[in-house]
């Protein structure tokens, strides 16, 4: 993976973690973005330095999801099975779907296939079960509806 692409992948994973943290702690977006910038991106994992993150992309993604959350949640909810509510979905899966939906709906400079593949990898890093298929189905439906006819 090239360095800029890897930096974006790290930023996407961090954005998912930030959204999860915001949901469980109630912290605001600027507080969490600042915490990641000041403490997490410069850290290490078991003595190994973390891969570089595209910090501006992380900030734009995290803030963008929060600002467009109503639109994003509607796009996700419309693709769920009848009777399912977004609140029924695991908080990590919800954060993954929100980040990916934001990119699919608002970031026209990134191909849909790239966005979906990146978030499927993130999903697989957290879960071993059926979650990846579920995430793929929702994201594919959002991507298909966003393409011009």
For the largest sheet, list the strands in their spatial order. 1-2
How many strand segments?
Answer: 2
Q: Domain count, please report it.
A: 1
The radius of gyration computed from the alpha-carbon positions, rounded to a whole number of angstroms, is 15 Å
The residue-averaged pLDDT reads: 88
Number of helices: 7
The CATH architecture is Orthogonal Bundle
Query: What is the chains' assembly state?
Result: single chain
Q: Which structural category do the helix and sheet elements fall into?
A: mainly alpha
For the record, the CATH class is Mainly Alpha
Low-confidence stretches: none
The shape, in one word, is: globular
Report, as a whole number of angstroms, the end-to-end distance. Answer: 33 Å
What is the CATH superfamily label? NusB-like
Strand content: under 5%
Question: What is the element string, with H for helices and E for strands?
Answer: HHEEHHHHH
What is the share of helical residues? 55-70%
Write the layout of secondary structure elements.
Layout (H helix, E strand, L loop, with lengths): L2 H23 L3 H12 L3 E2 L2 E2 L5 H13 L1 H9 L13 H16 L5 H15 L4 H16 L3
Antiparallel strand pairs: 1-2
């Amino acid at each position: 993976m090239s360095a800029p692409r890897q930096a974006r992948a790290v930023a996407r994973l961090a954005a998912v973690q930030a959204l999860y943290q915001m949901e469980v702690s109630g912290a605001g977006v600027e507080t969490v973005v600042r915490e990641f910038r000041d403490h997490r991106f410069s850290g290490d994992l078991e003595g190994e330095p973390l891969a570089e993150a595209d910090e501006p992309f992380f900030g734009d993604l995290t803030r963008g999801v929060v600002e467009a959350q109503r639109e994003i949640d509607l796009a996700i909810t419309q693709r769920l099975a009848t009777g399912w509510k977004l609140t029924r979905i695991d908080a990590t899966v919800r954060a993954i779907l929100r980040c990916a939906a934001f990119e699919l709906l608002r970031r026209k400079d990134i191909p849909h296939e790239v966005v979906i593949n990146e978030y499927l990898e993130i999903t697989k890093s957290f879960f071993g079960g059926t979650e990846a298929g579920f995430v793929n189905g929702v994201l594919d439906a959002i991507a298909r509806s966003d393409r011009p006819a």
